[in-house]
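S.,

Sequence below, as promised.
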Amino acid sequence: MRTMRTTRAMRTRTRAVILATAIALAALWPTGCDSDPAGPLNAPAGPSAAFGIWEPGPNDTCTKEIHDRYAVVGPDGKLYPTWHPPVDPVTGCSFGHEHGRDPRGSKLYREVGPIPFGYANEQLDIYAPHMRRHEDHVGHKIEWENDFELSFENGGNAVLRITCSVLTKLHQGSHSKDAFTNNLHELVYHIRCNDGTAMHITMMAAIGEPGVFHASCDRDRRIHAGDPTPLNSPRGGGKRVIPDRACVEQHMLVSAGNSNYRAALHESWETHNTIRTADGRTLATFDPYFQILYPSRYYDPTQPNNVGRPIDVCYEVAPNGARATLEGRFGEDRPPERLDFALSIDLGADLGFGTASSVFARFGASLGDRPALAFGLHAGPPPARSRPAAASCRFAQFVVIREHGLS
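The prediction came back faster than expected:
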């Protein structure tokens, strides 16, 4: 069993159920796709803006029709895309992108059902039409963990142990320019614990500053990348930490020694989310961090759309002779052994306890050999360019495999 331990004292032993919803979310989903595409569904309200936007590229062998069979009817009666494998199990064709881990392995899947991609974005169109924010299809990524242990401690002594399961989905476009400027991203977060605590949230999460991100190799360096979409995007907690050209030149292009690919190409999407009642009372805060190793793009203002491709750097030789090395250090081809995130739940609000006592837990998950929450390299390959016959780093081969979502 993977274990998680808190580093903060427990403030209460009160047991309660929290069902917090940022945007109205049905408790039971209508029938959608299962292991195979479900085919056309009866969506009384028609298609959502997110449905049907994917088009096959030159290297994708699946048709749009096959892709659109992976769909679910959302709580609003509209049709939404949902999770599918990188390769269609019926025809054997490839979609050229992936959506993270198969949610059917989560213990919460039976409760929440298929996750409709773009539901929060659709509701934002209705309730705040002046803040429209539509996201591409391939950026939707799912992750889950079953039966991890939390221990709430007081002075080093565990006073309560509970077991929880989490199922989450974040739109994380690590292949395009989108995250350079845009801080609004759809986040789905489900958690249920054996003490009765539960939370189910679908929301547009504001991650850091609009129009600004932080350089991964120097987190104090703020990069103003342009105007966000929408222009009135609110500032949120946390930050988006993304590599730029300076990080690539510092750690990947070297004139002596070995490249450090992990230092050059590592993203951290650090969220801080708060759910409040209409009168401003806090029901819950939760702060999951999402890591990406070796994303398929970095920020380069000299390139079209400000997008530089790591795979191109593998063929590059700088004027001083610096280049990416074949023996470059990858560290580990997976996220750190411990992934920290925080969960704070107000156990008193609207539950009749009189006082708003709370419990705060910060814990790290031991991820072992599984690449949990690592969703980089999920888009199709960059446009073909004139390149030397051989790359100078084995990263090039690694990228080609991972960009097709087949590893």
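The chain has a mean pLDDT of 76.

Coffee later?
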